[in-house]
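re: ur question from yesterday

yeah so i grabbed the chain u mentioned. its 324 aa long if i counted rite. heres the sequnce exactly as i have it in my notes:
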Amino acid sequence: MKNYFRLAALLFLFFTGVSFLHSFDTQGQVEFNIRFFDRRVYFVNSDPILVQITITNNSPFPYRFKLADDRFFSVDFDVRTMTNRQLPQADILTRRRNQNIQVFFREIAIESGESFSFTEDLREYVNFTQPGSFRVNAMIYPELFRSNIATPIQSNFLNLTLRPPVIEGPDGLPLELDVATGAVLVRQRIPPDEVVSYMITARQQSQWERFFLYLDIETMLQRDPVQRRRYMAENEAGRLRMTAEYRLNLQNAVIDGDIVVIPTTFEILRTVHENDEGRVHVLQRFRMPNFTELREYTYFLERRDNIWMIVDYSVRGMGTTAND
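ran it thru and got these structure tokens back, copy pasting raw so excuse formatting
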């Protein structure tokens, strides 16, 4: 019996030591990377600056860390100017960390070769007051932020450019900018068929800001009943986050791939509009190695303040033709 307990104690110490060594070895093989969730033109005083945080476990063992429900106790950002001047923390971050509150968290386990990602708004961590160029570095606290002596894991660096305050149109709404040229993209009072032609041509030229100019993202994402319920239940910040996610997913063809696929050629078949609603039927051709696929797209538009916006679409297969 004594030998049995002695063996059990030795096994316990052995596996505890192995677990500790695995945790120690894993620390040096965990990658912590950040990237802009939706790369766009950023202004000092406008949309959220969403940063996607990804933790990748390259070790042969599971990696575990604590992730607070209130992310201020798990994540931090260090943003500096090109002269290495650190920008001050956002007021909400300072207030939360100085409050005497209980921090709730969950333990995340990342298996070998797997990744875990989440998104944070950089504006909730850093106070931006002036335009300019900045370097962004993120830190994650595996054992939570308890004090200034907590040891974080450092991320890679991102370059961030903030433009002067957003330019507003006569209706008070922010204007889109062409990422390539910085020119203001202003929606024009053009008929529905020209709106659709503008969007498809922009996609053929991979000009995303132009592609999204006449696309009503908020209405598009609410076409799905589940997404609509989520959207309606969110506050303003949550809706902005959902809109940004939907836009990025469109751009990456994760969802609604039919609207972002690039046609070889297209032809407006007919346009029907009455009052403030319209439909544009378009024949789009997609050239393959041995044949060309034909699809008829129907784009649904609504007119708001004399501007036609695309709010929905449908696709119907029209068969194939042999290539010349």
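noticed a couple things. The domain at 2-163 is CATH 2.60.40.2360 (Immunoglobulin-like). also The two ends are 87 Å apart (CA to CA).
anyway ttyl
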